[in-house]
User: Fold these one by one.
Assistant:
Number 1:
Amino acid sequence: MSNQVLSCENVTASYGAIQALHGVNLEVNEGEIVVVLGANGAGKTTTLRAICNMVATEGTVMLNGRDISKADTADIVNAGVAHVPQGRGTFAALTVLENLEVGAYTRTDDEVQSDIEMWFEKYPVLGERRTQAAGSLSGGEQQMLAVARAAMSRPTMMLLDEPSLGLAPLIIEDLFQTFAQLNKEQGTSMLLVEQNANLALEIADRGYLLETGEITGSGSAEELRNDPAVQAAYLGA
Amino acid sequence: MQLLLQRIFDGVSDGAVYASIAVALVLIFKATTLINFAQGEMAMFGAFFAYIFAVQSGILDFLGNQYLIIWVAAIIAMVLSAGVGITIERTLTRPFDPEDHLPVVLITLGLFLGINAIAGIIWNYQARVMPAMFPNGSDDKVVIFGARLFYDTIGTIVTLGVVLYILFIILNKTKMGLAFRAVSANVESARLVGVRTGRVLSFGWALASAFGALGAVIVAPRITLQPSMMAAIVIYAFAAAAVGGLDSVGGAAIGGMIVGLTKSLGNGYLGSWHFGLEHPPLEFLPATPLLIPVLILLAVLWFKPSGLFGTKRIERV
């Protein structure tokens, strides 16, 4: 078995009386992109929130061999997890530049500035608008900013919550290329939650199927692509 | 001309005090999206801290100079008030769900009554003379076109300017300030970049409490020191914060000036307005000019609900 970065063992989560996850088991190995496919309301977002301890959870979440199930969200981020929440979660009132600076909040090294410049080079539109409020950006630009901000913490593990939601196909493709690139160049492991199964399976190594709060299937990206049930449910075949 | 100038000076002098309390309100609003109804009472308590050190205990008498004594006492009071602010945040507001506003609003209302009562028990309601932070005798003034500009007014404005500048640096140039603004913009995202939101909230309460205490120490010599001293001031501070936009520090400072000026000018020019009646009901008279800032507030909220400098809430859905 290769080096495990993240694992969820029998994780349950609930919002008040409503249980959203009924014992989820999954793992992400070093350098892997793992996708969780599921319909609306299957518990995809809750799974990511449970990992960051932003919802009441039971069960064990391990990060690099350390139990983080009871850790504070800020500690989990400090330990190397970056979470791009659904709906982007950019700081609308802060400038583009400040969004990236605050993304590096946990860092103490002196390469923050060069990382910011690197992202401005990669997404020139962000560079041009560095002094504008993030709230004035378009949906696609905000998603770029959200991803760049998450990457600014130099995470070992990135959690991506439906990054394709509400974006134009070209922008989605560009974003997924960025994910693949980050994964390849910096070795960032990723847990990607998506409904857009086509693109997700293209960059993913493995995947899980999540239905009504339970993992109902798993396999390599190749296996999932060829699974008739997956094709019917997520690939529109 | 002389009268106009005089009223402007008076308005600016009051406005600076409203501004300091309004800025304190805004700081807590930015951190928690809540109005701290106890802000004025917390500031009053801070003024009593300064009084203890400067007058009651005589602990600072070795400093000799009366202004040095009150300034050192004011700084001690700001630090102690910051501690009180942190304690209140940790013990009374943090246990509650920040999304659920009602409990915390009720707590600040309770604090308003509680702090006032505690101050009454400790110091009773008798008015005390507070030493001034600036020379405030009847000769301590410059005369400009016949209008008296007191050193007290100049000192208050300069102090407010310096403290606002320091606040600006803290909020815009430090890591803690960035974290504070991030929490203010989006609490959940702030947690997701590793900000310890509890610490940031404490920081906001500390800043606000210190700032409010300074305002109370400055105003106390003018209106005498007693537990209910802030009642009239805090109303105008609320108005100032709302006029400026509840989430804008600069807006609160300008709002304070607007309220101070309209109150002073309204009082000056409309103070003898009799509603066209030959025998107006007496109880109306003193109240008329006080309505002006309230009317300004209404007008601003009517045409620009987010205040003059506040962030418009636009959310993509």
Number 2:
Amino acid sequence: MMKIEDIGFSYREKPVLEKVDLEVKKGEIIGILGPNGCGKTTLLKLLNRNLHPNVGKVLMDGTDLEEISKRRIARHIAVVPQSNEIRFAFSVRDIVMMGRMPFLDRFQGESLEDARIVDEAMEKTNIKEFSDRLINTMSGGERQRVIIARAIAQRPEIILLDEPTLHLDINHQFEVLELVNRLSDEEKLTVIIVSHDLPMVVKYCDRIVLIHDHRVFAIGTPEEVLTKENMRIVFNIDALLEYDDTLKTNCVKIIGSCTNRDRTPVPKVE
Amino acid sequence: MENVAKRRRRTITVFAALFIILIIFMVLDLAQAFIPLSFEEAFWALLGTGSETNIIIVWKMNLPRVVMACLIGAGLAISGGVMQALFRNPMASPYILGLSSGASLGAAIGLTFTLSWIPSLLLIPLLAFVTCMATLFLVYSIAHVGGRVPTETLLLAGIAVGSFLSALVSLLTYLAGDQMQGIIYWTMGNLTNANWNNIMIVAPLITAGCLIMLSSSRDLNAMMLGDAHAMDLGVEVKKIRLQLLVASALVTAAAVAYVGVIGFVGLVVPHILRIMIGPNNRALLPATLLGGAAFLMMCDYISRVIAPSLGILPIGIMTALIGAPYFIYLLRRRRSEMGWD
């Protein structure tokens, strides 16, 4: 459904991404993983044409994104961006209704159908009760859910999430990812998540794209990609992905930084 | 705390109130004369019956003034509202971006020098448009860095260019000697030159500008959340922003060329209305049209009656004298609801 063909992007002569190839299948949850500054967010922006690749193509259902209007792209691809500080006193409903923008003409009013879609999106994200609240009075986690509801109201086939758990409390982190996971199951939604949160990505993603030095370093299931060796090279950490018998699930165990490994542990004071 | 149901009711009240204020001051302004007409006389004169003098007062003197005040007030207010949303900045207005100064320079040149082959009636607005547009593109290209136009740079460039152009206007005023009185009077803003010929030029320009702005209200909502949000929702941000800037320049130039510099409408009216009915431009922009017209209409009436011994005061003085204190009152009382902090 979405195909990335050998794209490269550079900013002021400096390469940010090189030779990225990726094919995204319908209903998949893909995690794009890598250290800060490796080009993850840039890749996400290339996927909905907020940035234009210098070489290569991004194809959606076989059509080059460069040949489609932003408006049409927004009918298929929704984005939940990283920072979502909003200082204007829009109501929650106003914000979710913005998800219908790509379908409405300039002077066209919102129809009952749009209102129904918006209600449904707010129900799914559990924000129906906030509907009349003002967005600038809400907490980070609540705001994140509002933006996800907006994305759902776009009725997209693909949702792109940029560090969805970055500013959230740990309980909200799981809440957001559970929600995304459920949507992917129920509606066959394709989800692409950019993150550097290893445990989160392992728990929810079907496939992982590991980015290192502006290139795709490895692609595959979490087990295939997050080997001890790969994590050492890319993140410079001593970590292990293994099946935990007591928890009955795959777990990432982070032992420490590779650079500090030789240091003798500080003796405990009794 | 503010909630949406309350806001919805208030929106309806605000629209109704603005409409009533507009009508009241329109009627008062229409009937105003050295010896004011009664409302009945004014009404019949408007329909073309009654004494010759009454018809002349209403049709030749007062009605053009009323129409011009509505057009300019609505145009300046919506431009201010659009710019504040566009730059997500409470300070933004055609004035801050240097557009007013740009248009002033052109108009001041037109007032100072006469070219025999163009009648000054056309020369002044023409020059105002040219310099206003030139200022816009100058400011825009100064602020344009590596394919992006950051808001901060744009505002700073606007302030710097605006100051430079204002200094040029002052220089011209100083050098103008004989015509100095005219330029000064015009920099205070006044509606005395309103006539049907001017309106024939101003009306289509301001209407076109306003339509462009109204048609982008939904895009503007998304852009208030940030350019990235807007792009994700399918808005061609760069294109829409340029369109809106050109529309603002059009309206500002038309206003400045024919009635001089009228401050405060573009800054204050959208602010007050945003506090009252919220930031959604689908409701806010139409409200600014109505609010700007009503505010300028009211200021015009007051400027005509407040000091009969001094004649008609320049309207630019009235807008600031009335607008600023009310704005400061709101700022103190309802800072939190402004949505800027």
